[in-house]
Amino acid sequence: IRAAHSIKGASGIVGFLSIQKLAEQLEIFLRIFGGARSVITQEALEILEKSTTLLEKISQLSILQIHTILR
Fold first, then answer.
1. Residues 6+ apart with CB under 8 A from 29
2. For the chain, how are helix, strand and coil distributed in percent, rounded to 5?
3. CA separation (Å) from 58 to 4, 22, 32, 47, 61?
4. What's 38's DSSP letter?
5. CA end-to-end span of the chain, whole Å?
6. Which residue ranges of the chain lie beneath pLDDT 70?
7. Dihedral angle computed from the Cα positions of residues 23, 40, 46 and 2, in that order, rounded to the nearest 10 degrees
């Protein structure tokens, strides 16, 4: 949750609103399913995997590449 929150804040500061929104949704998702009594479905795991993979790929791009993609 902390990492998603940090990504959300950093991307907002530099104006990457799409990345900020993705990180925000991931943070919410992790809070919902982070409870000890939560049952995570296969669909939820797939969403989590896709979200983290996307953020990982974004993190490997240069700032110029990100600006080009988000335009």
1. 44, 47, 48, 51
2. 75, 0, 25
3. 13, 11, 24, 16, 5
4. -
5. 28
6. 35-36, 71
7. 20
The token pair at 5 is 């929150």
pLDDT in tens, 17-34: 888 998 998 888 888 877
Cβ 58 vs Cβ 20: under 8 Å: no
Whether 35 contacts 26, CB under 8 Å: no
One-letter amino acid at 27 equals E
Q: For residues 46 and 33, what is the distance between their CA atoms, to the nearest angstrom?
A: 13
Write out the two tokens for 2: 């902390």
